[in-house]
Amino acid sequence: MQYFVKGCRRFFGRIFRGVLIKKPPVQLKKEAELLKGMVENASIVDPADNVPPNFPKKSVVEPTLQEINALMVLFNQGQYVEVINQAQKMTTRFPQSGFIWKALAVALQKQGKDPLSAMQKAAELLPQDVEAHHNLAIYLKNQGKLQEAVLSYRRVVKLKPDLLEAHYNLGHLLFELGQLNSAIVSYRQVLKNKPNFAEAHCCLGNALLGMGQVNTAISSYRHALKIKPDFAEAHYNLGNALREIGQFDKAANSYRQTIQIQPDFIEAYRNLGNALRELGQFEQALTSYRWVLEIKPDFASIYCNIGNALLDLGQFDDGIASYRRGLAIQPDLLDAYNNILFTQHYQSGQSAEIMFETAQRFGEVVTRQVQPYTSWRKKSGSTPIERLRVGLVSGDFGNHPVGYFIEGILAACASNSFN
Fold first, then answer.
1. Tens of pLDDT along 379-389?
2. Please, what's the b/e burial string for 70-81 (b: 16 or more CB within 10 A of its CB; e: otherwise)?
3. What is the rounded CA–CA span in Å between residue 292 and residue 322?
4. For 142-200, what is each residue's pLDDT tens digit?
5. Within a 10 A sphere around the Cβ of 139, how many other Cβ atoms?
6. Dihedral sign, Cα of residue 97, residue 101, residue 102, residue 106
7. Which segments of 313-381 are extended strands (E)?
8. pTM of the full predicted structure?
9. What are phi and psi for residue 304, nearest 5 degrees?
10. Residue 351: C-alpha distances to residues 194, 304, 315, 319, 345 (Å)
């Protein structure tokens, strides 16, 4: 006898639901909703009484009415360990019951255990169940399995094209994967049905900016701010876009508005300082950078910005001292080493030995961070001893110390191993 569960699709479905509103480059997080009353409101309906006696019987794929009721009681009582035990036994007896696999997934999640296999099985057995696929998509995203999450989200939006939450989250995933054109499509799908969604306008702007469509991105940010004037991230991202097209004064104003709304927005202070440097306002830039240290004293990289502003003011010794403070916090801070080496060339009294020692440390740090490239692609039919062709491209190969320095390195290389 086959039993039907009224409300079961909502019973276990929404435990993993939640809008992941990550808005690159600014990230906002929202945890998935917990189970709220779905169990209490679910009820069992057995239509078998209306089935004619001579109706052909199907093989039993679902547990009995009493077993389902017992499982629901355990859920009501919060006895998730026992739910797991009972559900696992039921999956042995009823391996084709998508309902039981969903129940098992929820209980495992509630206990902090890995529900992935159960969720995947539920989605397999319930190919038309939007919630089963949505739950799986959200979990995969949270586990960093972005490509797999994209596939699940695409299944969700195919099953339920009007589920804006899925389109929105799919857009975030595609953005993270660098698939900006597809992300734009997802965000526009959201805005087509919800034009006053400020966050979606901001995310669309981020994707457009990544595609180099700066003016269109600016329009998206301004649209977001028209809807939500106190939207700090939109002000900040607008400032970034304005800097891209050289409108540094307007960019500085956008960063100031960001800070007014969110006074602890570290990157807004940094980029305000960067815009002010472009405007030649070095003292004001220095003040903006130093505000970062008031918020986060151990923010190593800001010492590079401070050092740069000090160099702008001709304070070379203080600039180098700032770079070294950054290195004291983060010994592998490459920008600090790079800036020290360049600045030492403009300082009097810097011996070749001191500069060589700095260069050696820089080389050691770079060497530790270098990862060997292993994804070499060979043409079909090539031999193992085929000579490697190497191309070097740099803006420093002209009338520049690096250009002259590299000549000796190339001359010392074994020319018989590559072209």
1. 555 555 566 77
2. ebbebbeeeebe
3. 14
4. 999 999 999 999 999 999 999 999 999 999 999 999 999 999 999 999 999 999 999 99
5. 22
6. positive
7. none
8. 0.74
9. -70, -45
10. 65, 23, 19, 18, 10
